[in-house]
Description:
Blueprint: H1 9-14, E1 21-26, E2 32-38, H2 41-48, H3 57-64, E3 68-73, H4 77-91, E4 98-99, E5 107-110, E6 119-122, E7 131-133, H5 139-153, H6 173-176, H7 190-204, H8 209-224, H9 228-246, E8 249-250, E9 258-269, E10 276-288, E11 291-302, H10 308-322, E12 329-332, H11 339-350, E13 355-357, H12 362-404, E14 411-420, E15 423-433, E16 436-437, E17 443-446, H13 455-471, E18 483-486, H14 490-502, E19 509-514, E20 520-524, E21 529-531, H15 537-562, H16 578-588, H17 591-596, H18 599-603, H19 610-621
Parallel strand pairs: 9-12, 12-13, 14-18, 18-19
Antiparallel strand pairs: 1-2, 1-3, 4-11, 5-6, 5-7, 8-11, 9-10, 10-11, 14-15, 15-16, 15-17, 19-20, 20-21
Helix pairs in contact: 4-11, 5-7, 5-9, 8-9, 10-11, 12-15, 13-14
Amino acid sequence: MPMDGQFIIEEELKKLPGSPGVYIMRNARDEIIYVGKAVSLKNRVRQYFQSTRNKSPKVVRMVSQIDHFEYIVTDSELEALVLESNLIKENRPRYNTMLKDDKTYPYICVTLGEEFPRIIMARSMKKDKSKYYGPYPTAGAVHDMIDLVRKLYKIRSCSRKLPESIGKERPCLNYHIGQCDAPCQGQVSAEAYRERVSRALSFLSGNTKDEIDALTEKMQQASIEMRYEDAAAARDLINSIQIITERQKITASDGDDRDVIAVAVDTLKEGNSSYSRTEAVAQVYFVREGRLIGREHFFLTSEDTEDPAEILRSFITQYYAGTPFVPGELMLEREVPEQELLEEWLTARRGSHVKIRIPKKGMKEKLVEMARENAENALLRDRERMQREERRTSGAVKEIEELLSIPCASRMEAYDISNISGFESVGSMIVYDRGRPKRTDYRKFRIKTVQGPNDYASMEEVLTRRFMRAKEGSAAFAALPDIILMDGGKGQVHIAEKVLDSLGLSIPVAGMVKDDYHRTRGIWYGDREIPIDRNSEGFKLITRIQDEAHRFAIEYHRLLRSKGQVHSILDDIDGVGPARRKALMKAFGSAEAIRAASVDELAEVPSMNRRAAASVYDFFHREET
């Protein structure tokens, strides 16, 4: 950036290198709005600022918001892909295609590094001696399988350290109900136990026929010998095996691990504007060792592209950057950009070769087609929900922008004060980003300079501290709002404007004007009251923000009280000690009743005198005079 602090885009474009790398677009508030990679930074970044003739409205909209950019040179396109993926996940830029879901999938882990291995659920694969199966689509599927295997092979479920702890504790309930042979008591040798584990591993790998045959023979023999409980137990185990393995339909005879992926795309209009946003669903079928063990769908949103191939590529990079397991093959419904580069990246993530295929015929093509149909069904099913969510978030923000005639209201901040009769006041700051709460940016304040119930002075302190920290460069307060919403009308708006003027900041401030029933009836902005339709999405969003600010402040105040950090308000009154506090509370029942009492009424309380009564009265009413 030039020494004078000005960023002249035309001049900076001339300095771009022809190397591979990642470019980062920022708006006037220094927020990252787009991250991309390029084989040649010079060629790619320049394209954004050339003629708009062949650009989509979304790209034109994004470029109009670029204030400055930066770039990071890499040694290869593969390095650029990895860096792009990391930066997108870390910053979640508005104009990148974003994976909404952030799920982790469970595995079955057999702890082969232990002398007496266990079978447990794990949320990630570690580089240890354990054997992992999965990932499975749900924790329920994992628990069902683990319970079944433990019953079949009497594998221990405890976390005792064996053999060191053998004989030190009594056996658990599983031993008494016949589901464990108590290796913790030395009743089964390590060799015999390992043999059971080997059979369990074979079962988990899909070899269930031998076990069903053995259980069937056991059931029949028990029935002949009239051991009906044993026969019923064997029958139940057979049924459990058949139910669980039925879910794992055979999809291929090669026994490979693969993911089958397809996307469905829909474009939603943003209110009455010409802009639109793309919503998409990616459907993934998990095939492990040739068996379809489950499926899952993921929601994506995009403001930069409607191309299914681009969205599919973005999904692959984001999803496999976050999952610990990469299968040896991806089966896709269509070609994706930079397919060879993706294969190289996935191979590096897996540690062995990964192939991307687009099947054209046979069973594999039918499986991809099934994934695509399920993605379309999921998108169709949720279209109404997404449109409703769009209206109540981005649509509501646009209504507020139009109502107040301001260019942008993406980031809204609201504040509230909470106290009990003015004691131990606290302040809250909540943030809504594009109509959704951004809880990572919420902040709490304990009022330090104001005594008693003075909400205006408390609010002035909170706002001053918040924006002073931003001016001082605090990372926690760096992002500035597009608009500030105050819980009151003209008075609170002027308090906020006074603070902003003193700090040299220009941020729109609007207040919520209440009617006689304390319901919001309009917006105070630009020194006038602007009516607002109570049935509009904009009004409902403001109400949600108002309620959230109240909730967050009250929650913080309750937290302090629960920790014993808030003492009685009477503790701060001169001349009122423990005996008088107790007498006052016994006579009036609450601080509010004490506040409402006259000096004469206070003086009549046992242990009180006229001087102490006047001190109590003055304490509660000094802010009213």
